[in-house]
Amino acid sequence: MNATFPIQPLGRFAGDSEPVKRPKEFACFSYDEDHKFHLDDSSLKWYYPPPLNTDLSKGYETFVQHDDSIDEHLDSLLETIASHEKENGKPIDANVVTWRGMMTKIMAAPFEDRDGFEMNATLYRDCIFIEEHKIGPKQEQRFPGPIPQEVMQFWGYKFETLCTMPAPWGETSREFIESRDSHVVNNKQQYCSVVRTGLGKTALCLGGEVDALWDVKPTTPGQPINWVELKTSAEIRPDNWRDKENFERKLMKYWIQSFLLGVPKIIVGFRSRDGFLLRTEEFETTAIPTLVAASRRAANRAPLWDGNVCINFASAFLDFLRHTINDEGVWRIRRMAGSPHIEVFKVEEVGHGNIITDNFMNWRIKL
Ligand code: A3P
Ligand code: MG
Ligand code: MG
């Protein structure tokens, strides 16, 4: 079966947003400095303002970089879900389980058609599990410029290292805080939050990395958490509408990414063209769609994106997906770069490919 979900025209997704459930963390896990999985919050970090005028390229030679060409499927997420289910003695009640990154691509699809995406999905016990379809090592697009792409990518991780501590402020030594500029940058280490959320009629379980905590984690489960998302971006040059527009487009991705996990605050480190940290600016996630719309109106320019359209589009797409993926096998979800639609078609008649782990199935059989 081959089904197609048209993205255009967008008019049908305009208007008030479908109901959205506030994301609630119900579990978490960590990858340590060797990217080894731990069912705990050991890689949690706290935010503390970074030293300005820092060279974000410093330490690139010692960067401990995660090899993201290895396909990790949904393994860590499933292990965390299984552990939660063992504690509760019942399966989680989600219609869709996936990484936050997959939902980000879907929600952004109405306003972003440059990259395209491919995912694999399978139905298992009334729930659709979606993973990224990895196609060998990523073909990095090369942009001519004085600074290698790899170094520019490092800046983002360096900023995270400059802004975080492994314990709250009161429990971290002054020496640690002041020496952050010389700490080894390691992106193998991550804290991942696993939340339950909802878009329209679909209950979702999403897992995704969060960068840091602003203060303390509430002790009552389900309470909003003061997470902080850290981002770097090129400084917006004065009177340069193109710089501003590029940043306002980026804000859509920041907003979606943070909205999906319930991250309330985004801290942007603005940097010079040659990678020096100039200043930081805080954005309240929920205010971003209105902020960008107002800025466009004030500049007499057409809107760039609409948050309600993102939500309503994703909600309608999930309805379509749940209607389409209705028997066994593995399905491909594909949007070609520039395409006005998303295709869903079967690639394996039976089984669940590598999406569902044996461990997860063995556990679920016992339930
Ligand atoms: P910046 O976003 O500050 O440039 P995240 O913000 O999602 O926690 O990601 C941290 C950093 O990982 C990013 O920092 C960027 O350097 C890198 N990164 C994340 N997603 C990427 C992608 N799709 N392509 C290239 N680099 C990416
Ligand atoms: Mg991060
Ligand atoms: Mg970040």
UniProtKB/TrEMBL annotation:
Signal peptide region: none
RAI1-like domain span: 21-360
CC per GO annotation: cytosol; nucleus
Molecular function per GO: metal ion binding; mRNA 5'-diphosphatase activity; nuclease activity; nucleotide binding; RNA binding
Entry-linked InterPro entries: RAI1 (IPR013961), RAI1-like_fam (IPR039039)
Cofactor: a divalent metal cation
Compartments (UniProt record): Nucleus
Keywords: Hydrolase, Metal-binding, Nuclease, Nucleotide-binding, Nucleus, RNA-binding
Catalytic activity: a 5'-end (N(7)-methyl 5'-triphosphoguanosine)-ribonucleoside-ribonucleotide in mRNA + H2O = a (N(7)-methyl 5'-triphosphoguanosine)-nucleoside + a 5'-end phospho-ribonucleoside in mRNA + H(+); a 5'-end NAD(+)-phospho-ribonucleoside in mRNA + H2O = a 5'-end phospho-ribonucleoside in mRNA + NAD(+) + H(+); a 5'-end triphospho-ribonucleoside in mRNA + H2O = a 5'-end phospho-ribonucleoside in mRNA + diphosphate + H(+)
TM regions (residue ranges): none
The EC number(s) this enzyme carries: 3.6.1.-
Pfam families in the cross-refs: RAI1 (PF08652)
Domain of life: Eukaryota
Biological processes annotated in GO: NAD-cap decapping; nuclear-transcribed mRNA catabolic process
Chain's role: Decapping enzyme for NAD-capped RNAs: specifically hydrolyzes the nicotinamide adenine dinucleotide (NAD) cap from a subset of RNAs by removing the entire NAD moiety from the 5'-end of an NAD-capped RNA. The NAD-cap is present at the 5'-end of some RNAs and snoRNAs. In contrast to the canonical 5'-end N7 methylguanosine (m7G) cap, the NAD cap promotes mRNA decay. Also acts as a non-canonical decapping enzyme that removes the entire cap structure of m7G capped or incompletely capped RNAs.
Family, per entry: Belongs to the DXO/Dom3Z family.
Name of the featured protein: Decapping nuclease
Lineage of origin: Eukaryota, Fungi, Dikarya, Ascomycota, Pezizomycotina
